[in-house]
Amino acid sequence: MEENKHSFRWIENAKIYQVLIDRFSGYNENYTTENLKKNFIYGNLQSLISKLDYIKSLNFNMIWLSPFFVNQPNGYHGYHSINFNHVDPRFAFGEKSPDKNIGNALDPDDVKKETSSDLLLKQFIGECHKRNIFVMMDIVPNHVYKDHPIFLDALKNPNSKYRDWFYFLDKPKNKYVPYLCFLSFGELPKLNLDNKDCFNHVINSIKKFLSYNIDAIRVDHCIGPSLKTLKKLVDTIHKDFPDVPFIGECMTFFIANEYPSIFGVSKEYLELTNQINLTSLKHLDEIFLTYVNILDGVLDFTFQNLVGMFAEGKITENECMREIEEHFERFEDCENFILVKNVDSHDTDRILFKCKNNRNIFKKIMNILFRKYNGRNDPLILYYGTEDFMTQERTINGMPYGDYLCRKPMEFSMQWMKTFFKEKNE
């Protein structure tokens, strides 16, 4: 199979520490469960700077930041943007931010302006680089929040110049959501990246923050845009930033009925991967392979789910290892396609919970995560708090806002696992 011409040797063996900005450092400690479910608790980049030495002490050399763009009032996670052009002051400075400027997305020159929050991000990146820590930003090119000024203009005015930035439907099934959106979330209208002005709006935002020396990009819901459009986006950025890898979130489980809004994966493959089992994970690898010439890599959800099946007792450790080896063998002709190993994230149950809080199983899984496979040098991700044995009381599935359970504030307490991770990384 033809492979991406970029190799990104600098990211080989990277140890990536995933941070949910609002929940990591500097947050208001007087939070409630309701706050955690829906609201900011004001963790911020300014405070995160003070924790860089902590992350470095564990020998992690890259930080994956949750999206930092201006978000809707309750968008603590960062995925509900109302302006791609600027850093949200709450993510920059926290609850008492001196910066109130969120820009004006309707202004064509807005992206050229810098707010105090933008400059704080630039400072944060500089502090990371002083410590030889790379930074990966998280972009959301598939959709915006319903209160985004551009969408509001398009929604209210059928003759709006922004109307074609979105997919308004002639015969919507739901009169209250007369447009395509992210899956079934009507509050997240889908962007039409085939519209030149919309495409350039997204591109200019990405280029702005890459000019701050961000090192890598995670692409949220990369299956949303068509393969052709996604390739155009990546190739356009690579012309100016050839050393920046694009890592896609290629997640297809439990969304077979959402195929009208998913342009990057066929209905057939969405059905084949609608459940999580050993067969569907092989089909997921087939989907990954369709992105070899388009993205520079993907978050390795095959690896994540094989490890999860072992943690939950659905397969044995030996079966898990055999399946993982076979998984990596499917990519033996794609050594430059990055498979970023991970065991959990802000969208899943924490791995210790999956282990039923059995720390012996947990340690085995950490050893599986830190191993190399098939002669590859793929990076790995550790979700914040894993080193502190962070867990949860129940699964995030089946309850409204259940994901707050895996997004609780960082604790900074345990010591044994800190030593373990430091040793594993040396």
* Rounded mean pLDDT score: 95
> How far apart lie the N and C ends?
35 Å
> Total strand count, please?
12
Which shape, going by the Cα principal axes? globular
Low-pLDDT residue spans: none
- Beta-strand residue percentage: 5-15%
The radius of gyration computed from the alpha-carbon positions, rounded to a whole number of angstroms, is: 21 Å
Strand order of the largest sheet: 11-10-9-8-5-2-1-12
Quickly count the helices.
Answer: 15
Instruction: Specify the biggest β-sheet.
Output: 8 strands, parallel
Task: Provide tags for this entry.
426 residues, alpha/beta, 8-stranded parallel sheet, two-stranded antiparallel sheet, 15 helices, 12 strands, 34% helix, globular
3D structure, described in words:
The protein has 426 residues and is an alpha/beta fold. The chain has helices spanning 33-38, 45-49, 52-57, 89-93, 116-130, 149-156, 196-210, 227-240, 267-272, 278-290, 301-311, 317-329, 351-354, 359-370, 416-425, and strands spanning 15-19, 62-65, 69-71, 81-87, 134-139, 181-182, 185-189, 216-219, 246-248, 297-299, 338-340, 380-383. Strand 8 (216-219), helix 8 and strand 9 form a beta-alpha-beta unit. The mean pLDDT is 95.
Brief account:
The chain has 426 residues and is α/β, with parallel strands linked by helices. It contains 15 helices and twelve strands. It is globular and about 60 Å long.
What topology emerges from the helices and strands here?
Layout: E1 15-19, H1 33-38, H2 45-49, H3 52-57, E2 62-65, E3 69-71, E4 81-87, H4 89-93, H5 116-130, E5 134-139, H6 149-156, E6 181-182, E7 185-189, H7 196-210, E8 216-219, H8 227-240, E9 246-248, H9 267-272, H10 278-290, E10 297-299, H11 301-311, H12 317-329, E11 338-340, H13 351-354, H14 359-370, E12 380-383, H15 416-425
Parallel strand pairs: 1-2, 1-12, 2-5, 5-8, 8-9, 9-10, 10-11
Antiparallel strand pairs: 3-4, 6-7
